[in-house]
Known about the structure:
This protein is α+β, with helices and mostly antiparallel strands. The chain has five helices and four strands; from the N terminus they run αααααββββ. The N and C termini lie far apart (88 Å).
Amino acid sequence: MAKITKSKRRRGAELLEFTFTLLPLMMMIIVLLDASWAIFVKSTLAFAVRSGVRLGITITGTQATAAGSNLTAMVKANVQSNSLGLLSGAAGLAKIKVNYLQPPAPGSTAAAVDVSANSDGNNPLNIMEVSIQGFSLKALIPRFFSWKTAIDNSSTSISAVAADLIEPSRDPPPIGAAP
């Protein structure tokens, strides 16, 4: 009988070990990419609403008239342009909401009153709230948990909100249609 050497007994072990390490490694990389993508989208939308609020609380009527627009439309356009294409088109614009709130009197425990429908909703010291609602993010790679269940293609809902006090101005811009 021929002698079996150690190298012949170990033949194919490298391929098996490579397979056992490659599959979990690929799954970890996919999960990392999906999580990174979601964090990037969330931070991009948060930046977009913050820049929209910053523009909205400081803009004057002269600037709005020169642009041929109103406060709400200019804020929505600013948020859309800072969203890196995530909120493109009319569908993306519909997800951006601008609300105007009148804060309660000092010392009061009452809630802020929504004055978005009023023509003077953008009075100084009112609160401008800019939000993105209903943005759904699909996973980069569909998720599957076992061979017996269907692939999970569901999306994750991401929202972003920013608010600040409207600064006093001698030249307030027209409010436009809100939210």
